[in-house]
């Protein structure tokens, strides 16, 4: 069976994601299409709009065969860490090729940008941009290409992860169409960015019906839903203790203490600068919220495969894979498995379900529609 991979977040799932799935199937004709997805937290430093098992169900309903979770510690990070976790999962799942959306739609150009990022000239230019007060991610983006878009930034990180892992994975791109990741409002197309959708009251034109129904029933979750807990933790934790958590550096812990107010939006606005972007602040707050400490995580292949859902094709592929790779740890099947990455992911999920608007299904989803 030929397995093809995609790397996704689905926060929220929309028509552009359906387009990605359909085009990947048309281009690569897989027997099993595997989606690695962020779970209840996302890479931009946010709570997932949609709960992870519901995201898995949406993926299965619209053409994916097997859905696997990228664990939380790889997600609450910058692009290189997220990409490394996702690519390591695809490699372990014996995926031979994967397809990602790209604004440039030119793998050669993306590889050239990655090669430039390894040079002395890049390092010099990066340091110069950092001295201007930009964040590391902004400095990196400006140094590589100040006009580069979000999907291509991730694409470069995917190529970097393939090199670092020596993964036997062939990348493909499809052209991102009709919307850009940074668009805050939709155009007249039926495809809108996830950013734009999070700003809309009526999203029905841009998403499948299941997503509209989900929003009407539960609402989309947001970090502001968790701010009462965050407010308590920030207010009762000393600044020197906050420094134990991932992303807490450069004195941001003192700003958190100094600027603490009861309103989430006011709090973010009072701290945000060129160096402290909203995404960086939110990732830091999520690290504090989940007690994600600096020393708990090192960059290594994901130590287990957490299955969120599958259909009949996905089931057949899993059975084949388990025979070929008996050393892989599959969850939730292996109930006695313990690991710091898993423990932190479970803690993050516990906090999510305690404070978000969505219930948790009790087990992985088996979708009989193929």
Question: What does the overall shape look like?
Answer: globular
Unreliable runs, pLDDT <50, ≥5 residues? none
Q: Strand portion, in percent?
A: 5-15%
Helical fraction equals 40-55%
Helix vs. strand class: alpha/beta
Count all strands and give the number.
10
Question: What would you report as the Rg, rounded to the nearest angstrom?
Answer: 20 Å
Distance between the termini: 15 Å
Spell the H/E element sequence.
EHEEEHEHHEHHHHEHHHHHHHEHEHE
Number of helices: 17
What number is the mean pLDDT? 92
Q: Tell me the major beta sheet.
A: 8 strands, mixed
Describe, in short, the structure shown.
By secondary structure, the protein is of the alpha/beta class. The chain is built from 17 helices and ten strands. It has helices at residues 15-28, 52-61, 72-75, 79-92, 107-116, 120-131, 136-145, 150-165, 194-197, 209-218, 227-236, 239-242, 252-259, 264-271, 278-290, 312-324, 340-355; strands at residues 3-8, 32-38, 41-42, 46-47, 66-70, 97-102, 170-175, 305-311, 330-331, 365-367.
